[in-house]
Amino acid sequence: MSSETEFNPQNKVRRRSAWLGPLALVLLFLVGMLVLSLFFRVSTIEVVNASEYSDEEIIQASGVELGANLFFVDRFKAASMIFSDLPYMDTVSIRRQLPGKIIIQAEGSAPVAYLALDEEYWLLDRWGKMLGTVSQTEAEKYPEIRHLEPLTAIAGTDMMVEGDNVARLAYYVELLTPLQAEGVLPYIQWIDLRTVSNPSLRLDGRITVYLGEKDSVDYKVALLRDVTEKLSRDDTGTLYYAGGNAWTFSPD
Q1: Domain 44-108, what fold?
Q2: What does the pLDDT look like over 84-133, one tens digit per residue?
Q3: Using CA atoms, how far apart are residues 196 and 88, in angstroms rounded to an integer?
Q4: CATH T-level fold of 144-251
Q5: What is the pTM of this model?
Q6: Domains of the chain: which residue ranges?
């Protein structure tokens, strides 16, 4: 008994065509990568800068270098490095622009208050970001925030809190924006968040203000500005938020 194997040339052609397609794709990919690496290189780094840092400081912190491959620049890593090295930075965005430009848009964090922690004076922005330590003289240009205790103090990071301090930080964030917007902040010496249901602040060195619950804070601050403008420069005492559009003044 004999067996015969038939040879079909079409089978060989099919096997070749099966791997020629993927091979062509790989070669096309490699050629594309070669073109990108040769022709799209960083020739310009532009900084759109609204911070206290110089353009050169921002570029250096980003780690982006001229001549680098435009498409291999890790924008997220570069932004992270900027935040790490430059704590007074609020927002950073980085984008590519063909044929060879990197654009870094940076906005700084402005200090608005300070915390006294273990004989150190930490500046804060209006979101509770810890900007770094300064001298007592420099810190006292801003209101002191009392009874707000972070878990850790790391320059350039958002404040981490737990327990009662979560609500205190939330009130702080809610309060600082309208105080800035209404022009009241420069006249405040301290803000005490011990009783989060009714925190207080010292205004113009002569009036203690009790703010009540954390609702409609922007409205309360607008009313507070109007009320204090009607008081005499010699008036001293305490202002209590009485609800609605009413404040009660108790003179000393």
Answers
A1: Ubiquitin-like (UB roll) (3.10.20)
A2: 899 888 899 999 998 899 999 999 888 999 999 999 999 999 999 999 99
A3: 28
A4: Rossmann fold (3.40.50)
A5: 0.75
A6: 44-108, 144-251
